[in-house]
């Protein structure tokens, strides 16, 4: 495989969204993502259990957000390309570990409030730039402030229910013993996939089922 700077630049210039998804589904990229995400999860749980929320832990959680996104995108690429090479259990471990890593720093944040404020501020600013005949009244501070507030509340209300479910589930999978177990499963499953099997298949074969 050519990994020179020229080949990387050429790939970036010619890459398309669907092409990237297809590339992520090609071995050994999914296995590498699974193994690396598992290692990060195990190390993160270890740091939290032994040293609490230190600087290394906090930096690792931020890095974990990136890895979590990569893991969830890899799951999507495997699903979209329907390669049939990954068992549902393997994809579940990949996606669940990615979900845990992504949401870990946000467990104590009210994302609905943040999103609502962002929408409100964005609408307030955009309405101030309206230059359409007959709609000049939208640039009035009181009018656009009222519209922005209403939209911010609507976004907050709509997103709050989804947020509560996601954060509740995130708190479960981010309990450090659970996160440690997910990381170990991810590492073990990546090795199993390398040998063209799965932890589940290995257990069933061991039990003669």
Summarize the structure.
This protein has 9 helices and no strands. It has helices at 5-14, 17-24, 29-51, 55-81, 88-103, 111-127, 141-173, 176-194, 199-206.
Labels describing this entry:
single chain, 9 helices, disordered N terminus
Explain this structure to me?
- It is elongated and about 75 Å long.
- The protein is built from 9 helices and no strands.
- Residues 1-5 and 11-19 have low confidence and may be disordered.
- It has helices at 5-14, 17-24, 29-51, 55-81, 88-103, 111-127, 141-173, 176-194, 199-206.
- Helix 2 (17-24) packs across helix 4, helix 3 (29-51) packs across helix 5 (88-103) and helix 3 (29-51) packs antiparallel against helix 8.
- With 209 residues, it is an all-alpha fold.
| Topology order in helix (H) and strand (E) letters | HHHHHHHHH
What is the number of E strands?
0
Structural class: mainly alpha
The share of residues in helices is over 70%
Shape: elongated
Distance between the termini: 41 Å
What gyration radius follows from the Cα positions, in whole Å?
Answer: 22 Å
């Amino acid at each position: 495989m050519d990994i020179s700077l020229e080949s990387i630049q050429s790939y970036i210039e010619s890459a398309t969204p669907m092409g990237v998804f297809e590339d992520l589904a090609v071995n050994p990229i999914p296995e590498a993502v699974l193994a690396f995400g598992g290692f990060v999860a195990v190390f993160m749980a270890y740091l939290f259990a032994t040293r609490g929320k230190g600087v290394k832990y906090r930096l690792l959680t931020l890095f974990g957000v990136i890895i979590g996104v990569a893991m969830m995108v890899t799951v999507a690429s495997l699903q979209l390309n329907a390669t049939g090479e990954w068992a549902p259990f393997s994809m579940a471990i990949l996606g669940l570990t990615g979900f845990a890593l992504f949401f870990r720093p946000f467990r104590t944040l009210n994302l609905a409030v943040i999103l609502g404020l962002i929408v409100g501020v964005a609408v307030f600013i955009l309405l101030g730039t309206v230059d359409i005949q007959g709609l000049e009244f939208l640039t009035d501070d009181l009018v656009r402030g009222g519209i922005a507030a209403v939209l911010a509340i609507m976004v907050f209300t709509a997103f709050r229910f989804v947020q509560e479910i996601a954060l509740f589930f995130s708190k479960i999978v981010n309990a450090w013993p659970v996160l440690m177990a997910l990381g170990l499963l991810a590492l073990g499953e990546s090795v199993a996939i390398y040998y063209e099997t799965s932890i589940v298949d290995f257990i069933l074969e061991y039990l003669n089922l």
